[in-house]
Design brief:
This protein is α+β, with helices and mostly antiparallel strands. The protein is about 25% helix and about 35% strand. It contains three helices and eleven strands. Strands 1, 2, 3, 4, 5, 6, 7, 8 and 11 form a nine-stranded antiparallel sheet that branches. Strands 9-10 form a two-stranded antiparallel ribbon. Helix 1 packs antiparallel against helix 3 and helix 2 packs antiparallel against helix 3.
Length: about 190
């Protein structure tokens, strides 16, 4: 995604993701926080005190925490290009970020981490006994490739059984995925 002003790009992207979440699985709005220089921003669900929180999903007593850390880079044509530096999508049992979690999808760009584990990964709140010993999937970084919010929403509705807000939820996800491909020139 590109645009003429960093703040406008951050708001446009946040508004798109917020609208998609609100059309499908939660009524909670996303808040946007900018760094003073205006070149970095983060969106997440926040409570009245501006602390991050998890949003209640429409069914099942589950909650979703969403966070993306974004930056803009100047382009030769004097526009700005949006980049996701980090994302976190956490399925939780309660509204606090400290609530017990079930699944965590995470990503950190090369500039934010050393290559000690896969940049795109998932954590599961489980331990499995194997012949080689216990495997703690909370601590393992299971490689996933890029995980879009659309795929998380689709998983929550189709696999976990979260009740969608509208019957046309998949059409909304498909439209959003098409927009993502247009903005990023990336296949998903």
């Amino acid at each position: 995604m590109t645009g003429d002003r960093p703040g406008d790009i951050f708001r446009q992207f946040r508004d798109h993701i917020s609208r998609l979440l609100n059309q499908t699985i939660t009524d909670a709005p996303l808040s946007l926080a900018h760094r003073k220089d205006g070149l970095f921003a983060q969106f997440s669900f926040r409570d009245d005190s501006e602390f991050p929180m998890a949003a209640p999903l429409f069914s099942g007593g589950l909650f979703l925490a969403v966070s993306q850390q974004l930056e803009v880079e100047p382009q030769p044509d004097k526009t700005w290009r949006l980049r996701t530096m980090e994302y976190n999508y956490h399925l939780l049992e309660g509204p606090s970020p400290d609530s017990p979690w079930i699944i965590r999808w995470e990503y950190k760009s090369h500039s934010r981490q050393r290559n000690e584990h896969p940049r795109h990964h998932v954590h599961l709140a489980t331990v499995i006994d194997t012949p080689a010993g216990k495997m703690d999937f909370d601590k393992l970084h299971l490689s996933t490739g890029w995980v879009t919010i659309e795929e998380v929403i689709r998983f929550l509705i189709a696999e976990v059984g979260v009740k969608p807000k509208a019957n046309n939820w998949d059409e909304e996800l498909i439209k959003s995925e098409e927009l993502f491909r247009k903005w990023t020139a990336r296949n998903i």
